[in-house]
Amino acid sequence: MTNFRTQAIHAGYEPNDEHDHAAVPPIYASAAFNLGDALRGDALAAGELDGFEYSRVANPTVDALERRVAALEGGIGAVAVGSGMAAVTYALMCAGEGGGRIIAPTDLYGASVDALGDFLPQFGIHADFVKDINDLDEVESKIGPDTRAIFAETVANPSTEVLDIEPLAALAHRHGIAVIVDNTVPTPYLLRPIEFGADIVVHSTTKGITGHGNAIGGIIVDGGHFDWTNGRFPQFTMRQQVISDDRAGEWHSFGEKYGSAAFIKRIRIKYLRTFGAVQSPFNAYLSLVGLETLPQRVSQQVATATRIAEHLTHNPHVTKVNYSGLGTTPQYELVRKYFPNGVGQIMSFLVDGSPENVRRIIDGTKLFSYVPNIGDARSLIVDPAHITHREVPAEARRAAGVTDNMLRLSIGLEDVDDLIADLDQAIAGAY
Ligand code: PLP
User: Fold this and answer.
1) Do you find a cis peptide bond into 372, omega within 30 degrees of 0?
2) CATH number of domain containing 99
3) 268 lies in a domain?
4) Ligand 1 pocket mutation, candidates 109, 203, 387, criterion most atoms within 8 A of CB
5) pLDDT confidence tier of residue 1, bands split at 50, 70 and 90
6) Residues 413 and 278 in one domain
7) How many A from CA of 204 to the centre of ligand 1?
8) Residue 10: inside a domain
9) Which of 147, 209, 324, 359 could form a disulfide with 160 if both were Cys (CB 3.0 to 4.6 A apart)?
10) Do residue 329 and residue 180 come from a single domain?
């Protein structure tokens, strides 16, 4: 069972005795699980036996989602969390913990820029921002003794700039540094970054994975190839009580105990267990159902987005369309290499006129919902400078191309002609 469409429906869940043969993964709405007898309880707590104890650490519905997304991304394991931002910050903190530095572009989702530039520094984790993450000389010039990871979006929101993962990963690995990517926009249907050398993949499952705008969630997937004991990451080589048995005098570090799974185990055992941003079983269930149609939804959205982007290039009030899928940008070769099935359903465009014209376009759309989200079955419109990238400092906003005359679209599953007609009338009516 290796094909993506089959895995999207079946991976991670068996309708067997364990689940009373329920065809669809059930919602296990239970905070805790019976430990059985004292010996079983002790073995579960020691991690010697697979099973569930308490839903802050693991839950069977959430487990099915974790296994399914890990299979779809080609990872060795995953941990689902309460939101995409929990996934981003847990992954960055787990790599940067204890005074590390992260190299990143500013062309990122607004809250990720704020986390790296403003908030994580309060916890001793600092960012080195680069202008162009695909410029290997610029990236290499930022690598120092405390650098732990490079973080970027595989398709940036809202520019749709594409990440050249393979050479970046080769550079990072030469220096013993990990590559963490946010694969939210393309979803694993359009891109599987681990196959190109990424070490850790994060998602906001709120978007394309769930696909209906009805559940906030996030997930971290571990590719299982990175050596976290290479000397740059003291958190993986120090002995820790939570995975040791002091009564037996046995002490372990995450690296020594879990080897290639050290990162994802630390995310669950330290981050999820301590900071507790769990994904609810109900949201995991919605994501599991959403994933069943991921290939079909995304294929249609890519086809519609491509037609809309092309159509917008002919509108006299549209001065620029950002959609790497158009095949007209300097990134064309990268798009062909990494995205043979398209770059996804978001795009942005710039219009002439004043901020008043931008407001009138937003208010004039009838089919597009004015919603700060992406990857929904509904088509959405937003003005990033005021909404999704509001917390980004002006200079970084400019560097990411987020100007006041920019509008971002997330294309849904409506009829393409209806969507084009709606945009045409909204733009025409705004001037
Ligand atoms: N990463 C990207 C690329 C996003 O677009 C978003 C949200 O828009 C996030 C992360 C954060 O996800 P969430 O809203 O689920 O926390």
Assistant:
1) no
2) 3.40.640.10
3) yes
4) 109
5) low
6) no
7) 5
8) no
9) 324
10) no
pLDDT band at residue 174 under the 50/70/90 scheme: very high
Nearest C-alpha to atom 15 of ligand 1 is from which residue? 84
Give residue 302's identity as a one-letter amino acid code.
Answer: V
CA gap 299, 5 in Å, rounded: 12
**pLDDT for 2:** 80
Each residue of 196-221: b (16+ CB within 10 Å) or e? bbbbbbbbbbbbbbbbbbebbbbbbb
Rounded to the nearest angstrom, the distance between the alpha carbon of 269 and the centre of ligand 1 is 24
Ligand 1 within 6 A of CB of 88 = yes
**Does the pTM of the predicted model rise above 0.90?**
yes
Tokens of 425: 């009338």
Within 20-146, residue ranges assigned H as helices are: 38-45, 60-73, 84-96, 110-114, 136-141
Q: Is the CB–ligand 1 distance for residue 83 below 6 Å?
A: yes
Q: Is the CB of 106 under 6 A from ligand 1?
A: no
370 and 242 within one domain: no
Count the domains in the chain: 2
**pLDDT classification of 47: cutoffs 50, 70, 90:** confident
pLDDT recorded at residue 397: 85
Average confidence score pLDDT of the chain: 96
Tell whether ligand 1 has an atom less than 6 A from the beta carbon of residue 182.
yes
Whether 13 maps to a domain, the answer reads: no
Tens digits of residue pLDDT in 306-358: 999 999 999 999 999 999 999 877 898 999 999 999 999 999 999 999 999 99
C-alpha of residue 205 to centroid of ligand 1, in Å: 8
Distance of CA 101 to the CA centre of its chain: 20
With a 6 Å cutoff on the Cβ, whether 153 touches ligand 1 is: yes
| CA 388 to ligand 1 centroid distance, Å | 9
As a whole number of angstroms, the distance between CA 340 and CA 99 comes to: 39
Q: 204 CB under 6 A from ligand 1?
A: yes
Q: Are residues 258 and 363 in the same domain?
A: no
pLDDT band at 399 (very low <50, low <70, confident <90, very high): confident
pLDDT at position 389 over 90: no
Backbone torsions φ then ψ of 44, nearest 5 degrees: -65, -50
